[in-house]
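Lab manual, section 2.4: Encoding a predicted structure.

Procedure: take the sequence of the chain (148 residues), apply the prediction step described in section 2.3, and record the output as structure tokens. A sample record is shown.
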Amino acid sequence: MSIKIKFLNRTVLRAAAMILGTAATAAVADDRLVDVGKGEYDAACAVCHGSKGKGNGPFVEQLASRVPDLTVLARNNKGVFPFDHVYQVIDGRGELKAHGPRDMPIWGRAFNMQSSRYFQNTPPEDKESAARSRIMALTEYVYRLQAK
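Recorded output:
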């Protein structure tokens, strides 16, 4: 019986240490909040769409078609941000006939194949959820770019 109690006490102490360690890590993390959507935007989109989403990125002159101003998507849609449409355009794996020719990279495929500093593609058999998370964060960030 005393062996079971010692084992139980050791297990409780380990669990308490893990909980306290997690709480301490969370407290440190709160001091430096990460804007995942902005990070993904800066890494994948700003080069064409510009840092503020106005369509004036440094690569804009090398592109054949005009880069849209992402800050007016809601205004151009009667004040409603077209979340699903933006998500689908970023993903790019589904065919969008209304979108016209596909000049933009297919980020859904790229995000599925490579990890980011925010989302690891683990477990390997579930890379799709990491890709969806990145696209959701990016779409939400584009929503925040809307002109007020």
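Check your result against the sample. Helices lie at 2-31, 36-44, 46-49, 83-91, 107-113, 127-144.
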